[in-house]
Every structure is written in structure tokens, then in C-alpha cells.
Amino acid sequence: MHMEYRYGLMTVQWDDKDKSLVLIDQRRLPNRLEYIRCKSHEQVADCIKSMAVRGAPAIGVAAAFGLALAAINSKAKDKESFMHEIDAAFKLLRATRPTAINLFWALERIMSKARGADSIDKAREAMLSEAVAMLKEDLDVNRRLGDHGSLLLNDGDRVLTHCNAGALATVGYGTALGVIRAAKEKGKRISVIATETRPVMQGARLTAFELKHDGIDVSIAPDTSVALLMARGMIDKVIVGADRVLRDGHVFNKIGTYQVAILAKEHNIPFYVAAPLSSFDLKSKVEDVIIEERAYDEVVKIARRRIAPKGIRVFNPAFDVTPPTLITAIITEKGVLEPPYEQSIASVFNL
Ligand code: MRU
User: Fold this and answer.
1) How far apart are CA 223 and CA 208, in angstroms?
2) Mean pLDDT of successive 10-residue segments in the chain (351 residues)?
3) What is the bridge-based pairing of β-strands 244-246 and 237-240?
4) Active-site residue list
5) Whose CA is nearest to atom 15 of ligand 1?
6) Which GO terms describe its biological process (predicted)?
7) What's the CATH number for 2-142?
8) Percent helix, strand, coil in the chain (nearest 5)?
9) Which residues line ligand 1 (CB under 6 A)?
10) What is the CATH number of domain 149-348?
């Protein structure tokens, strides 16, 4: 239907005839593979907030189309009132989730097209074509990142991944799971252990689903089993994604990533982060980044059933920060960055 379908699961698609954004509804996975059609920026914002679409690059591209939809739907008669509406949509979309930098990066890219156009029609056209370009770019970037990363994997490797940094977290193909796909395409036999990733279960629900969907060998394991699996020599490498990478190599990613990195260091297992350059934040310091706190019910309930006493206090941070000292290398579309990250990151951005 929507876009050329070359990469297996396509998480974000644009239906140009219907002027709608088509997203896989990830809340329903793995039991049902269903799509949601968004025709307004409010719908897109709801999908991001409720995690129907999630994963840093997927959130970014979805938000870009959200802003383009606001432009398509605008009835404004002059550029000033048009910009007023676009600014309101921009604010709504940017308030959906705080940690993944791709959201802000993508919205800024579309906003600059809106600001730079000298008529409403030109703004509409430029905003939509930028969003379409970002969708295509995401697939291309993931392919290139995957190719670079695949050189780090050996035939027979057993790779642990946390959360979902796959096709479902991007437009398609994935970052961490893109590395695994690329290694498989080169004929290497790779098996994957996906941690469940409490409380939203992106590992058990999403990583397991998409790897099975593509015929890649995958098992799931509780988050709490990582130390034992490593101590038993069952893991050769770890690859995770990132929601934000700072200039000095600190990596924000799904809660639990930091403890996996500590355990990898303790067991001398390489710990790789796969992240496109759109996930890098060259301005912020660790303390500037907001770590999203999510709903109480995610922790006290499993499949809507209460599993903790009423009135219990809960901590539910959605992300943590892994220091650069625990990271063996960061895989990007422009190559594999090694420590010291201050230098390798500066040089990849030509700073
Ligand atoms: O809360 P989520 O599911 O949006 O978190 C996703 C992650 O933490 C991913 O690892 C990250 O966004 C990288 S996706 C290529």
C-alpha cells in the first residue's frame, strides 16, 4: 500500500492518497498486528504518549508527520495565523515524551521548513516532503549502521539485547537489531537473547515478536537473569539502542540498560550501543536531560491485574544513563566510534 515494502515490518508509513500516517499499534503486540491511521497531529501526539508508537527514531519520524498533518489540516488564511497553529501543534507534540532527543530533532527540522516558506502552500509542501525524506533517511541510516555494526559480530555469536531497538523502534530494520539483521544477511549465524524489559515488556513483546517474524533465532529471559547468563558464558556480546547520546558518550536508554552494562564489564563482554547521529545531543549535560517517569499502574499491575498491595509507593523511571567507561563502542551510520568519545564523537560531527 503505502511505501515500497523492502525491509520486513514497517512501523511508520505515509499514505499520500489518504493524507494519513499509518502506524503499527505496538500496544497490541505480540497478540495482534494492527495498524492505526492518524489524520491529525492530536492523534499522532496521543499515539506517542500512549506508546502505540515508541522507540526514539520512530517517535521522531511520527512527530514529523504529525506537524505536517497540522499544516495539511490548517484552514489559516495568512502565514501568521498558520504559524500560530503550527506552533501550537509543535508544542503539543514536543510535550509527549521528554527523553528521546529524536523527537525534538525531528520537530525542529519540520519547523524550520515552515518558518522558511513564504506562503502557506509552500510551507505545507516543504513540511510534508521533509517528513517523507526523514522516513526514507531512517531506513537508509539503519542499513548503513547495520553494515558497520555487523563487522563486530562473529559467526555463532549469542547477542543479548535490552528493550527494543529494532524495526519497531524505527521506521523499519532497526538499529541494534539492524546490526543483527545485517550480520545475518552476511551469512553469520547469530542468536539473540532478549531481556523481557519490565515494566512495559518491550523485549518480550516487541523484540521477540519482530525477530520471530523475520526468522531470527531469539529467546527471552527475565531482566533479573542477566548476571547468571553472563556468568555461565551464555552471552558473547551486548547490543542496545539509545534515546540520547551526549557529547562525552553518556548514553540514555531504557531503564535497566545501565545494570546490563555493569554486568557486561564485570564479565568482560563487549557492550555496544547502536545509535544514529539523530540520537546525539551535543549540547546537554547529564543533569539537563529529563528522565521520563511513567504511570504507577505500569508497575503495580501486570496485564491489568494488580500484583502489589494498594497504597504502595512506586518508582517508575523509564530510562537510565550508562557512563562512557562501560561502553565498548558506539555504532553509527558513519562508522564505529571508540573511546575516548569526546574525540570520536567530535570528529564524526566535524567539530
Ligand atoms: O520507552 P520506549 O519503548 O520508547 O524506549 C525505547 C528505548 O529505550 C530504545 O532502546 C531506544 O529508543 C532506541 S530505539 C532504536
Assistant:
1) 14
2) 60 97 97 97 98 98 98 97 98 98 98 97 98 98 98 98 98 98 97 98 98 96 98 98 98 98 98 98 98 97 95 98 98 98 97 92
3) unpaired
4) 243
5) 165
6) L-methionine salvage from methylthioadenosine
7) 1.20.120.420
8) 45, 20, 40
9) 54-57, 100, 163, 165, 169-170, 175, 202, 241-243, 253-254, 318
10) 3.40.50.10470
